[in-house]
Write a structure and sequence with these properties.
single chain; alpha/beta
């Protein structure tokens, strides 16, 4: 019975190839919040696109913003290569992303280009404005991207895509309804995060946190909730047209 139930939950992922689009506000957000899940998708043969809306140009105390943005782009690309993912940066400056038509259309074109079966992005109630804005932009753009009469650079996507919200920073005010066991890929998750070298000193200086320790503690806590060593937690955008009967996570 256990094997039968396990296989039932896996048939959707094993029965088809999927395009996975993960959209974060900043270049290291995806590694922190859903990196293990992206690795699991990759292992199962799905195509991964990682997008950062902001260019990370304000995440340092001394480096000039334009130089920092170039460094962070290279770091994000190095991380994406670990799982053979495509990486795109929409190049909006940190703290300057707003819910407006220009930003929404940047996300819309990313969605149309990636043609996702699943989108992962920030929870609407995460800790900083950029994260909250990106969550709303993805919500809007993922619907508008399907409209043939909404003219943009890329042709329309053919489906209104399910959206999964990844954990908040430190799991504050986020109660997962789904978990992904990342125990076997946790070291790869750490390797992806460690590609973002420019942020390690900054986060220690600005937020007084060691990111390896921080990420490990959250993954361990989510693991305790689902009887695994390490896990990542998610919630779905539960609205008409987005819900599915199959499990979408690995």
């Amino acid at each position: 019975m256990k094997l039968k139930a396990f296989l039932h939950g896996r048939l959707f992922l094993w029965g088809m190839h999927m395009n996975i689009l993960a959209v974060g506000a900043h270049p290291d957000d995806l590694e922190i919040l859903c990196g293990g899940t992206l690795i699991r998708y990759h292992i199962e043969g799905h195509s991964i696109t990682m997008g950062s809306v902001c260019n990370g140009n304000k995440g340092h105390r001394t480096l000039p913003g334009d130089k920092l943005a170039k460094i962070r782009l290279a770091e994000a690309q190095n991380s994406a290569r670990i799982i053979h993912a495509q990486h795109f940066c929409l190049n909006i400056p940190d703290c300057e992303v707003y819910v407006n038509r220009e930003a929404m259309e940047k996300v819309l074109n990313l969605i149309r280009q990636a043609k996702p079966d699943i989108i992962i992005t920030h929870s609407p109630n995460d800790y900083m404005p950029d994260h909250r804005v990106v969550s709303e932009l993805v919500f809007q753009a993922s619907f508008h991207a399907t409209l043939p009469l909404y003219n943009a650079e890329q042709p329309p996507h053919d489906k209104i895509t399910p959206v999964l919200y990844m954990d908040t920073l430190a799991g504050v005010d986020f109660n997962p309804t789904m978990y992904v066991d990342i125990t076997d890929v946790f070291e790869q998750k750490l390797a992806m995060l460690r590609c973002h070298k420019s942020q390690r000193d900054w986060l220690d200086d600005h937020d007084a946190i060691d990111m390896d320790e921080f990420m490990t503690a959250v993954a361990r806590f989510r693991g305790l909730q689902c009887s695994k060593k390490y896990a990542e937690g998610f919630r779905s955008l539960d609205v008409w047209g987005r819900n599915r009967t199959q499990r979408l996570l690995p």
